[in-house]
Amino acid sequence: MRAKTAVAGSRTRSLVVDRPGHHRLVTAPTPPPGPGEALVRVVAAGICGSDREVHDGTRPAAYVRYPVVPGHEWAGTVEDVGAGVPAALTGRKVVAEGFRNCRICDRCRAGDTSLCTAGYDETGFTRPGAFADTLVVPARLLHPLADDADLRAAALLEPSAVAASAALMAGAVPGERIAVVGAGTLGLLAVQFLAASTPAELVVIDPRRARAEQALPLGATQVRTPEEADGPPGGFDLVVETAGAPDTAAVATQLARRGGRVVLVGLPAPGARGIDPIHLAMSQITVYSVFGAPSAAWTHAVRAFTTGLLDPAPLITHEFPLERYAEAIALVGGGDPAVGKVLLRPSG
Fold first, then answer.
1. Residue 1 above 60 pLDDT?
2. At the N or C end, where does the chain have fewer CB atoms within 10 A?
3. Which residues pair with 60 in a beta bridge?
């Protein structure tokens, strides 16, 4: 059996959230990959609103298991592989899907791997994540990247896969009028995918005009504040909602034309304003929702990144070493338009 030379004697630092509001940096022997697994050295890991929920204790109990090492947005290099995994993966730059799908239920067999009926299980929430020097993941979930891939930018391929899922679900066709509600990370990534469909209009709506204007070089044709978009209902063939604010789902359905389509991506907190079912029925609006990303959306995102159609790098505004997690997490979700994607850099 091949010796685990990359692991033997090495140690890994991990950021552990023991319970809401309490975290610590621990060092322990690096775990070797088991059969079917790969050990990845993390180069960059993104922090998103879900990680802030884990930190604050506001994530629904069914979707987190304390103590936990967060980190579901990441990129790194394969350092070692377990039995049954091709040795050629060692040294490759990779990202990986977060959902530990079963592959055998009806939803998985239909390709909806993010809706696996075996129960919720995701890296960084119920399994150790990437706020660490290394992590172990099932090799079947890996997506190899090009040798020259920018791993800082690749850390955003998880939210990119979610945006890709929304774009694929929306089925945008050339010449449509499209609105994106929200200019956060998901919104700006969605703009890049939707711009590839050559819409007649691609309008980004966000109360932070300075933030919304970052969408213009990414493919948006116009930006508006909610007040500027508040006019007669309808008009857009497709509306993609990414903000997750209390009223943005309802607003998105009002922006769609009769017979239009709405894709809900943002996850609002409990108590959000409901969507008017009478309006949906009378206007024949089709509403889709996105939770995570199935394998097909990951493949789409990785291909777009590899070919240069997708460039997440401009969204990165802050980078911190693992030891400065407290500073990093404090920036996320504060509403400052100058704060985009915040990265942790465990391995520099």
1. no
2. N
3. none
Would you tell me how many other CB atoms lie within 10 Å of the CB of residue 273?
13
β-pairing, 286-289 with 73-81?
Answer: unpaired
Residue 2 or residue 41, greater confidence: 41
Q: What is the pLDDT of residue 280?
A: 95
Q: What is the pLDDT of residue 9?
A: 78
What's the pTM? 0.94
List, for residues 70-116, the tens digit of each pLDDT value.
Answer: 999 999 999 999 999 999 999 999 999 999 999 999 999 999 999 99
CB 160 within 8 A of CB 303: no
Q: Which residues of 195-234 are buried (b: 16+ CB within 10 A; e: fewer)?
A: bebebeebbbbbbbeebbebbeebbbbebbeeeebeeeeb
pLDDT classification of 141: cutoffs 50, 70, 90: very high
If we measure between CA atoms, which residue out of 250, 285, 290 comes closest to residue 267? 290
pLDDT of 232: 65
Residues 6+ apart with CB under 8 A from 83: 1, 34, 35, 36
CA–CA distances in Å: residue 82 to residues 132, 140, 178, 221, 239: 20, 12, 46, 48, 44
